[in-house]
Amino acid sequence: MTTELAKAWELFDSGDPQGAMRTLRFAADALPSAEIAPLVEKLAQGAGFADLAAASAALTADPAGAGALYEFGYACIGRGVSHLAVPALREALRLALAPRRGLLGRARRTPAPRQVLLELAVALEDEQRHAEAVGLLQEHDGLTEDWPDRYLLVHNAPMDGQVDLGRQVFGALGDPDETWRPAAERIRHLLARATVATPVDRQDLRGWHYTLTGGLLTTVSPAGFHQGMTGRWAYLQDDFGACRHGLERLRAVLAAMDRKPASVALLPDRGSRALGLAAARILGLPTAPYRPGTADTLVVAYDLNECDQELVAQLHDRAPGEVLYEHATCWTDPPAVPADVSTLLVQTVIAPWASRMRFTEDGERDDIPADERSAEELADAICAADPEPDAGDDDAPADPDELLVAFAVRVNATWLTGARDRVRSSGPVPSSRFA
Questions:
Q1: Of 145, 211, 296, 398, which residue is most buried, by most CB within 10 angstroms?
Q2: DSSP 8-state symbol, 287
Q3: Residue 400 main-chain phi, psi, to 5 deg
Q4: 80: domain range?
Q5: Do 168 and 300 belong together in one domain?
Q6: Tell me, what CATH number does 135's domain have?
Q7: Is the Cβ–Cβ distance between 97 and 81 less than 8 Å?
Q8: Contact yes or no for 59/30 (Cβ under 8 A)
Q9: Is the domain of 215 the same as that of 184?
């Protein structure tokens, strides 16, 4: 037993299944799937995942079986642990492509290579290993068909920054059937956005964010830009001034693009309502509760992941002239619908009105309690705050209003087009994150 697997078992036996799974996540590619299957079976039983537990037991019983490896990988994808699926499906694909010989010359039960290939590509995509997915599908192009096979190549190529490859392959695809027509439309919109956004490299966070999601990112984090964050935040204790700065940048974008909402639609959670009320005052607009399908409204959210998810789902189909604004967009767990405008990208955000961490000069922790004021009073605080942004690090690239406005004008013709489809990948721009 390897050191990593022994550590995972030790964590599991000590009552820490999450720690055991984290250990497996980082070690999965180096461990034979059959060796981790007994532990995965135990973890799956504890989580109530009967299908994954059964697939793990079957792999333990048939450690070299392509069918068992495939079923294990398939179950892992379905249960959100695609990192465990990748090595199992790689081995299943190798076996599926090998000459089939079994006892007395009978072929051993083996899944079709194309079937395994597609599941492996999906697992790699889930893990945001887009370059590997692209290479895999190109290597085995002879096994693939247009839909959905080569569509997976078209989708993963831009996620790895290879827009030209995606455009080339997409142009050669035949017409999709009804099932895949929405996917084709998503790619058409993405490629159109890439043409106007023209992201220049893997540090162009604003350009890639727009290309992949259709959303305008109005601020780029100045903290640790060249030390691994590349414009995103990992952890941020937000403040009222940053909220005001975000609204000022929203105002500049709307003016530059000649977009004139008739009103601000207020979402019911306190943070979003406060930000919406502040936006209405700054923009000089009336307010009304959010109603799906209302045209020419500015829908304001502080953090869409903290909103009522049934309500958020109704924002998928954009009403004519509707603009969805989100202050703090989570980039490691993107919301169900991407905002049309985001102030910042963050992994973990502490809202200005939430309890906040603080330390005394002596190093003692002395947290600030939550701000229990009403949404109306919080809106007053946002409007009264200084909108001057944090200067950040000395080596962070400058991001003046003029740069944002020029970008917004450039992409205006493709903005607010298509449905708001969730994009789970952070794309080709790397940023450090909490494990």
A1: 211
A2: E
A3: -70, 165
A4: 3-189
A5: no
A6: 1.25.40.10
A7: no
A8: no
A9: no
Report pLDDT digits (tens) over 110-169. Answer: 899 999 999 999 999 999 999 999 999 999 999 999 999 999 999 999 999 999 999 999
- Alpha helices for 48-129 (secondary structure H): 50-61, 66-78, 82-97, 113-126
Domain co-membership, 174 together with 210: no
Lowest mean pLDDT among 292-296, 340-344, 360-364, 428-432: 360-364
Rounded to whole angstroms, the Cα distance separating 63 from 169 reads 37
For residues 328 and 238, what is the distance between their CA atoms, to the nearest angstrom?
Answer: 9
At residue 275, φ and ψ (nearest 5 deg) are: -65, -35
Residue with tokens 């083996």: 110
Q: Is residue 295 part of a domain?
A: yes
Whether the CA torsion 42, 43, 46, 47 is positive or negative: it is: negative
Q: Which amino acid is present at 380?
A: D
Q: Are 134 and 160 in contact (CB under 8 A)?
A: yes
Please write the tens of the pLDDT for every residue from 267-317. Answer: 999 999 999 999 999 999 999 999 999 999 999 999 999 999 999 999 999
**Integer Cα distance of 185 and 344 in angstroms:** 27
Distance separating alpha carbons of residues 278 and 267, to the nearest angstrom: 13
Q: Tell me the per-residue pLDDT of 227-247, one tens digit each, with 9 for 90 and over.
A: 999 999 999 999 999 999 999
Q: Which residues pair with 326 in a beta bridge?
A: 301, 342
Bridge-partner residues for 325, per DSSP?
300, 341
Distances 276 to 178, 289, 371 between C-alpha atoms, Å: 39, 10, 18
Return phi, psi of residue 300, to 5°.
-115, 125
Tokens of 102: 């079994």
Cα–Cα distance measured from residue 283 to residue 313, given in angstroms and rounded to the nearest whole number:
26
Instruction: Tell me the two tokens of residue 54.
Output: 């059964």
433 in a structural domain: no
Q: How far apart are CA 244 and CA 352, in angstroms?
A: 12
Residue with tokens 């207020």: 266
Number of domains making up the chain = 2
- Reading the block at residue 314, the tokens are 């109704």
C-alpha dihedral sign at 247, 252, 257, 260:
positive
The answer to whether 247 and 379 have CB atoms below 8 angstroms apart is no
Same-domain status, 127 and 268:
no
Whether residue 292 is preceded by a cis peptide bond, meaning omega within 30 degrees of 0, is no
Kindly state whether residues 244 and 375 are assigned to the same domain. Answer: yes
Burial class (CB in 10 A: 0-12, 13-18, 19+), 124: buried
Question: Side chain identity at 138, as an amino acid letter?
Answer: Q
Residues, the chain: 435
Using CA atoms, how far apart are residues 129 and 17, in angstroms rounded to an integer? Answer: 25
136 class by beta-carbon count within 10 Å (0-12 exposed, 13-18 middle, 19+ buried): buried
Beta-carbon contacts of 135 under 8 Å, excluding residues fewer than 6 positions away, are none
